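Reminder: ligand-aware prediction takes two inputs, not one.
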Amino acid sequence: MADLFGSDTESDDDLNVETGGIVIYFSPSTSSYLSHYPHLSTSVNPTVSTYLSTPLSNDLALTRSLTVSLTHYEILNSPTLTTIINCSNTILAKGVCVLRGAADKCLVKSLGDAALKDLEIALENVRMYKNVDVTKGEDCSIGYKELSMREDYRCDIRTGPNLSHLHHSITSLQNDPTVNTIMTLACNSTDRGSRASNNLHLGNYGLHNFNGPGPLGPFLPLKTSTGCVVSLPGCGGQAVHSDTAHVLDEVHNRPHYINAFYNTSGSSSEGGRVDFEKGQTAFAVGSHRLEVCKVMTEGGDVGRRLMERNVVRPHVECGDIVMFDARVLHWGTENRWKGEDENDTEDMNIKRNEGWRGIFYVNYWREFFQDPKNWDERESVFD
Ligand SMILES: O=C(O)CCC(=O)C(=O)O
Ligand SMILES: [Fe+2]
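Here is what comes back for the chain with 2-oxoglutaric acid:
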């Protein structure tokens, strides 16, 4: 079958596992997450659970096609406009782009360390005051101002005493000019003045309202929020999901919401141990497009094959930035970390937070969009 979005694919017979490849499957914890998304259990998951036990044919070629590397000059100075445009076009075409080595590793690592410390305090409070031990996979429905659960063993911590101290570092990550420009170019129509565009933007007269900039004005700044998704050892493969809905669903529109993920642990280039067993994030390339996602999620052989041929599981390190259209199908893979010391019990390892995988994230969205999140704004986990 021809690809719906023009990516290179190999024949269906050509299934093989790349060296170091991971076969992903669903664990029981996925079912609790699915209870929040009943439609997924009847549509995506039969498809996905079938293919997840098979090797993937196209991971390597696709991963390369969406990975952007910096030149020596760019590492010493800053990414050039060519690279920035390349990243934004990759997000538009594939739904996901990996920009290698563009983030300040020390800064990202310090944010990751702070987030894990805050999560340790938060989970200890939950254990003491609510008698719920999240590190043992208990009650994934808890929610606080600063902490929410994505599913069993997968937490989202957005602030805490240690992260608050790093306020300036967080602001500098949010305002990173390279990432901001990539996001702004992806979220706004940039072919103004070209013949193909017909200059339709000139008809967006409502942009004069509420002291707006008008159709000829500058792009409105994107809104941002930050936090850290942490998966604990024992965390299963996450249910396949999109982080946001399409705003309109009759034609394909450019993104209104893009996430930047910063892996906070493990960097081979510094001689550090790369924690393959902690898992990473997998994506179904092209699924940010309605017509692709429709086929991938409707079940049956065609959808299953399309999904199979377009899953990527890029291995990213601290310093890399994964940017994805929040509509793209994706999921965190399982955390199988066990620790190195044979005498350690799993519990001791968990308490020391070594096996925890943190992704610091910055969400970027268009000014008109309201993101319905599952934070409980009433109760603080730190009080
Ligand atoms: O854990 C991951 O790698 C991804 C997490 C995620 O996509 C989510 O929680 O929405
Ligand atoms: Fe997600």
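The CA atoms of residues 26 and 237 lie 5 Å apart. The radius of gyration is 21 Å. We will return to this case in the review session.
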